[in-house]
Amino acid sequence: MPAPLYPSLASFKNLLHKHGLKATGQRLAVHEAMLDLIHGSADTVSAHIAAKGEQKVSVASVYTILSQMAELGIYTRRMGGGSKMVFDVRSGNHLHLYDLETDSFRDVPDDDLIDLIERNVRRRFKGYTIDHIDVQFVCRPSKRKNAKKI
């Protein structure tokens, strides 16, 4: 089954309401930044919000909001370089390409591979319930000028 798209602002508001949370200006600003960034740390999200100049949100508040959204399953977390927590606005099963040189993540669209992994993993771990599948390809850019962009 394909991974869900990023939650729009309207569906994000609905998710907040479903969890008994208010759609505060700070939460909405964080989500709007995450929609732009897709993968972001508290620092990058905070800087993105500050650059827009529409809302003031401290880095600590951004981290709290991102963590809360991850706890609710709205976002996911992953570890970036230097043990920095990076949050992902796409919570469904999908693949990542992690670039060691730029310390950045990119989604890798491959629903067929996700389906194959899901089918095989479910059979291998009897007695366990899989919450989600998190596959990350760790790489460096090739030196070839014609390297395929994802």
Radius of gyration, CA atoms, in whole angstroms = 17 Å
Annotated CATH architecture: Orthogonal Bundle
Q: What class would the helix/strand composition place it in?
A: alpha+beta
Oligomeric composition of the shown chains: single chain
Whole-Å distance between the termini? 21 Å
CATH topology descriptor: Arc Repressor Mutant, subunit A
CATH superfamily: Winged helix-like DNA-binding domain superfamily/Winged helix DNA-binding domain
Q: How can the largest sheet be summarized?
A: 3 strands, antiparallel
According to DSSP, the number of beta strands is 6
- Tally of alpha and pi helices: 5
Please mark out the parts with pLDDT under 50 across 5 or more consecutive residues, or reply none: none
Strand content: 15-25%
How do the strands of the widest beta sheet line up side by side?
1-3-2
Domains, number: 1
What does the overall shape look like? globular
Mind explaining what this structure looks like?
There is one protein chain. This protein is α+β, with helices and mostly antiparallel strands. The chain has a single domain (9-139), classed as Winged helix-like DNA-binding domain superfamily/Winged helix DNA-binding domain (Arc Repressor Mutant, subunit A). Helices cover 41% and strands 18% of the residues. The protein contains five helices and six strands. The protein has helices spanning 9-18, 25-37, 42-52, 59-71, 111-124; strands at residues 39-40, 76-79, 85-88, 94-99, 104-108, 134-139. The protein has a three-stranded antiparallel beta sheet with strand order 1-3-2. Helix 2 crosses helix 3 (42-52) and helix 3 crosses helix 4 (59-71). The radius of gyration is 17 Å and the shape is globular. The protein starts with 8 loop residues before the first helix and ends in an 11-residue tail after the last strand. The mean pLDDT is 87.
